[in-house]
Write a structure and sequence with these properties.
This protein is mainly alpha-helical. Among the domains are: 53 residues; 38 residues. It has four helices and no strands. The radius of gyration is 46 Å and the shape is elongated.
């Protein structure tokens, strides 16, 4: 019986050893595959970063500075300010006269509205009639569009069915 037990233990040990060897082989293969994949990913990442770096350098070389864009604007602003100052020197009354004339025109229009209430009422009534007519026309157009849409759907249903 002791011999049988020893044989049984030897067989179990051989099986364990064989399993362990197979497992170690699979483990080594898995680790090797993982290392290889990691190296490839690392190489690809480095290559991608180098590409981005090159693209950034190209973009930076093509960049135009803010000073180049705004170089002529300062002079243009100064020239327009000088031209405006010369215009005010030539016609100093334009500034004051323009605002006064505008105010007078607005006051005259207000007085006209107050002095002719009947004409204002007539104009208001005409405007109301026109607005009412436009509303009615738009409602009719909307109804026609709805009817046309229903007709189209009906024909589509007939063609399908």
């Amino acid at each position: 019986m002791a011999k049988f037990l020893q044989e049984y233990k030897k067989q179990q040990a051989k099986k364990s050893s064989a399993r362990s060897v197979v497992f170690d082989g699979q483990k080594k293969a898995l680790f090797a595959s993982g290392r290889k994949t990691a190296e490839e990913i690392s190489r690809d990442g480095v290559a991608y970063l180098e590409e981005l770096k090159a693209q950034a350098m190209i973009t930076k070389q093509q960049e135009i500075s803010y000073e180049k864009y705004t170089n002529g604007l300062d002079q243009l602003g100064e020239d327009s300010n000088e031209a405006l100052a010369k215009l005010v020197e030539i016609c100093p009354t334009v500034k004051e006269d323009l605002f006064v004339r505008r105010l007078q025109a607005l006051e005259a229009a207000g007085e006209m509205l107050k002095s002719n209430p009947s004409k204002r009422e007539q104009a208001l009534e005409l405007c109301r009639r026109n607005a009412h007519a436009q509303v009615i026309k738009s409602q009719e157009k909307e109804k026609l569009a709805t009817d046309a849409s229903r007709l189209i759907k009906h024909y589509k249903d007939l063609l399908r069915g």
